[in-house]
Structure formats: C-alpha cells, structure tokens
Amino acid sequence: MEQEMAELADKWTSKPVNLSGSGLGDAGLAAVAERLLGKHSHCRSLDLRHNALGVESAALLAGLLPGSMLERLSLGGNPRLGDEGAAALAQAG
Fold first, then answer.
1. CA 35 to chain CA centroid, nearest Å
2. What is the reported pLDDT for 15?
3. Contacts within 8 Å (CB) and 24+ apart, 3-9
4. pTM for the full model?
5. Closest by CA position to 61, among listed 84, 89, 20
6. Are 1 and 28 within 8 A, CB to CB?
7. Domains defined along the chain, listed by start
8. Rounded to whole angstroms, how far apart are CA atoms 50 and 41?
9. 29-77 pLDDT, tens digit each
10. Cβ–Cβ under 8 Å, residues 49 and 23
11. What integer pLDDT is reported at residue 34 of this predicted model?
C-alpha cells in the first residue's frame, strides 16, 4: 500500500489533494508526505481529515511545512493529534 500511495502522491503534487477518510494513519502519511509537501511539490491544498493521524504525523508535517507551498491544511477529525501535535504545527506555521 505504501508504494501505491507514493506513486499517487507523485501525480497529485500540483493539485488540491483530498485524502480525507483514506485511513492513512501515521505510517501512510509518512509514505506520501515528502512527495506532497517536499521542496519539489506545488501542492497548495491538502485535506487529511479523519485519517487517525497522531503526534508523529504532526511532527512530520511541522518539519515539512516551512519549505512547502501549502496554503491550506485540513486536519479535523484526527483527535490523536492532541495538544502536543497542535503545538508542533502552530510553531511550524
């Protein structure tokens, strides 16, 4: 599944990406995050709602956000992000 997600991510980098409810979890996000938000990506809108993302995902996103072109990030419905994840993302933005 990780390989399939990575291949799809390569196709999405210049368009709004809706992965809401995809069941990514932390491992799935780790497989696609660099392609979606890395320095060669043009992704401006990323919807990650309802994906069972946790603090690990927040830390990963926080590390990629400063160098990305992202303008909109939707993370609702991921209660495992918690206060620690929210703080990491707030510091990155």
1. 10
2. 75
3. 5/31, 5/32, 6/31, 6/32, 6/35, 8/32, 9/35, 9/36
4. 0.83
5. 89
6. yes
7. 2-92 (3.80.10.10)
8. 23
9. 999 998 888 877 888 999 999 999 999 999 999 999 998 989 999 999 9
10. no
11. 87
